[in-house]
Write a structure and sequence with these properties.
The protein has 132 residues and is α/β, with parallel strands linked by helices. Helix content is 43%, strand content 29%. It is built from four helices and six strands, in the order βββαβαβαβα. It has a six-stranded mixed sheet, with helices on both faces.
Amino acid sequence: MAKENGAQKVEVIPMRKIVLSTGTGKTNIDELKWLTETVLEEASAWKAQGWAYVADCSNMRPVSASESGELVKMTKAFVEAGCKAFGFIEGTSMMLKIQAQKNTERSETGVLEGHFATREEVLDWLKKEVQI
């Protein structure tokens, strides 16, 4: 069952160790903190085996510098909790792709990440390349 807070929605992909968040429009720091906590709760049972996080950003607006800093904290927290890979669904937005790549670089975690146009592409990549 999906959980929602403002611009953010979180769900678990059935039969896979993948947490998917979907954002719509403009988000804020409070929603991003909620997102971090919710994703960590959903993935808590998978820490030892590893899990993946997918962010569907295709209907989101770019975030501000302060929100970007919160995304860097989120990335670090997910990796510390056993996240093996990040998949980003960005549609055709080059701006979202660049912003997601920069946030991951700034986290200095070295986590594997992929950027895709659709949900199907990212789920296929995680299955083939990460075995999740």
